[in-house]
């Protein structure tokens, strides 16, 4: 079983729903990375402004340190859009981190973002998220899962990946 994992993807792809489902199916604790953002980051995104790399570095370091300080397996939801962001998380985690990329079309994710309530990330920032997204590389422990299917199927594929089985 994978010790540390990031459920990643652009805003609105379902990181929290999948992370919580994985917690229920595997017993591995899940932390929503949005809860780790500094208030300044949340305020900036709420105002419709995308984060810069400089805004993200302290947040990504904190996510890596959550893994490093966890005595038990842990899953965190985090966009982890760029390879450099994933490298920083791995560096601060001090261990192997697996990435579960929830991928979907802009149209599907935009619909989901329009439907959700009480989230600080406005749909207007979706294009900036897709622009920043860098594909996972062959040397990264990862799986990409299409989100255009039932949540239970996504969770089952992610669980198989965490267990070291082909999704």
Would you give an account of this structure?
The structure is a single chain. The protein has 167 residues and is of the alpha/beta class. It has one domain (4-162): 3-Layer(aba) Sandwich (Rossmann fold). The protein has helices at residues 15-26, 39-46, 53-68, 83-93, 106-115, 126-132, 151-162, and strands spanning 4-8, 29-32, 74-77, 98-103, 142-146. α1 packs across α7 (151-162) and α3 packs parallel to α4. The longest helix has 16 residues, at 53-68. The model has no long low-confidence stretch (mean pLDDT 89).
Outline: globular
Give the tally of β-strands.
Answer: 5
Number of helices, where a helix is a run of at least 4 consecutive DSSP H or I residues:
7
Strand content: 5-15%
In terms of per-residue confidence, which ranges show pLDDT below 50 for 5 or more consecutive residues? none
Mean pLDDT: 89
The helicity comes to 40-55%
CATH domain topology: Rossmann fold
Largest sheet, described in full? 5 strands, parallel
Supply the helix-strand structural class: alpha/beta
Instruction: Kindly provide the radius of gyration, computed on alpha-carbon positions and rounded to a whole number of angstroms.
Output: 15 Å
Succession of helices and strands: EHEHHEHEHHEH
Query: In whole angstroms, how far apart are the ends?
Result: 14 Å
Oligomer: single chain
Q: Let me know the CATH homologous superfamily.
A: P-loop containing nucleotide triphosphate hydrolases
CATH class: Alpha Beta
CATH architecture: 3-Layer(aba) Sandwich
Looking across the biggest beta sheet, what order are the strands in? 2-3-1-4-5
Number of domains: 1
């Amino acid at each position: 079983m994978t010790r540390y994992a990031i459920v990643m993807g652009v805003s609105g792809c379902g990181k929290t729903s999948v992370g919580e489902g994985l917690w229920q199916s595997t017993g591995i604790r899940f932390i929503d990375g949005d809860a780790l953002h500094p208030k300044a980051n949340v305020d900036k995104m709420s105002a419709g402004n995308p984060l810069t790399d400089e805004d993200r570095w302290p947040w990504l370091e904190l996510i890596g340190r959550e893994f490093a300080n966890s005595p038990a397996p842990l899953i965190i939801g985090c966009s982890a859009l760029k390879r450099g962001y994933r490298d920083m998380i791995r560096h601060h985690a001090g261990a192997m981190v697996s990435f579960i990329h929830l991928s979907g079309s802009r149209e599907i994710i935009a619909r989901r973002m329009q439907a959700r309530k009480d989230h600080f990330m406005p749909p207007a920032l979706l294009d900036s998220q897709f622009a920043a997204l860098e594909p996972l590389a062959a040397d990264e422990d990862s799986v990409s899962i299409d989100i255009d299917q039932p949540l239970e199927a996504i969770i089952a594929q992610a669980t198989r990946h965490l267990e070291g089985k082909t999704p």
